[in-house]
Amino acid sequence: MQEGEGMESGARRAGEGPSRERPRILHDMPTPVTPEVVSATSFLRQVNSQATLRALRLAEEPLRLTDLHEVTGLSRPTLSTVLDSLVSLGWVSETPAPASNGARGRPARLFAFNEDFGAVAGVDVDLHSVTVRIANLGLNTLAEVTFEPESVDSLDAHWLHRILGAATAKAGIDLSALLAVTLSVPGVVGPDGGISRSVVLPSWQESSIGADLARLLAARVAVENDANLAALSEGLHRPDLKNVIVVLVRRRASAGIILNGRLHRGSNGAAGEIGALEEVGWSKIDTPLAGIAALPDKERRLRIQEVAREFNSGLAALVLSFDPDAVVVTGIPEEIGIALSENLETEIAPRVLTPTAVLPGLSGPDSVLDGAVRNALELADATVFTA
Q1: Residues forming beta bridges with residue 245, ordered by sequence position
Q2: 131 vs 254: CA distance, rounded Å
Q3: How far apart are CA 319 and CA 245, in angstroms?
């Protein structure tokens, strides 16, 4: 580890008092919130709380009880109970509304999402590096640190715990402020969060690294495929597209699938892994793209055309299988993404049955980290009223 090795777990923000009490979650994947898992009362309280939190997070200004009633559809008595609990836990802050001239009675209560109540982290494990992004609950980035260990495959939960401590220290918060972490890996992640196959991380296959890290952090930890996280990010940026194939171009190419507006993992987490077929050539995509930005214009165009030709068999097969609204190419700089998308659309056109748009990603090289942090935020929301 080049940065932060051996560092303590971090420092609480200057002037901040004792750490706030919050749920201690030890699962490596979120426990499904269903009536079978929790009582009906607890289930409804959690659903109502999460709906209220999302409404406050999306609001551009503090909301009154009346505003929240209109947005969530919850009754005023239910909202009052939920808000009192969320304020006491620290998720929501309350301030009295400014008094109107001549107004009588108690001033209206204003509620706002407390984005600094805690933090979340996305950890992107690539072939030669590990990047950590720390964000508050409003998805504002507090710190981003890249580490370059001698061997990524030899890393364990204790090493990940140390680098999260270094990253949170850089962000100016204590490691205990992390409510949830999403660990992005290049490989197949099963329904239980275990890595069943990874060429880059063979020693992590069938390991319990997610559960081990969760125990060290006392926070929720999810393990997810990198292309799925890129698909999550791009899907959120393009809500008008309900069925999308998101192709992540990195050292290898892989795909995430969104069907009916939801991430499609398949029965065993292997949906979109067409790159496992050597004949489609996706495992070699990075070679012609290496250093492409520094090439003269003509050579760059030829190189991108070469990649599109190598790419098109696997992509055409995915398009024929899923019949998407569009294909999105992400993980690369915008200029290259635009050129590659245009060439791919031309290449696959004769091989598919209906015209399919191929679009450049809106998240670019940050798509995996963006998806990881957003996924961690969903995990953090799930900690409300769980123990």
Answers
A1: 257, 327
A2: 19
A3: 8
The first and second tokens of residue 134, run together, are: 């720390």
Which H or E element spans position 360?
A: strand 357-360
pTM to 2 decimal places: 0.82
Integer Cα distance of 1 and 251 in angstroms: 21
Quickly tell me which residue has 């890996």 as its tokens.
185
Question: Among 286, 306, 291, which residue's Cα sits nearest to residue 200?
Answer: 286
Query: Token pair 């590990």 is at which residue?
Result: 130
Taking each helix axis from N to C end, the angle separating 40-58 and 65-72, rounded to the nearest 10 degrees, works out to 110
How many whole angstroms separate alpha carbon 339 and alpha carbon 301? Answer: 8
Which amino acid, residue 85? S
Specify the pairing of strand 119-125 against strand 130-136.
antiparallel
> Who contacts 269 (Cβ-Cβ below 8 Å, separation ≥6)?
188, 189, 190, 191, 196, 225
117-126 pLDDT, tens digit each: 999 999 999 8
Tokens representing 325 are 């609204």
pLDDT of 27-40, one tens digit each?
333 333 333 334 56
Asked if residues 114 and 97 have their Cβ atoms less than 8 Å apart, the reply is no
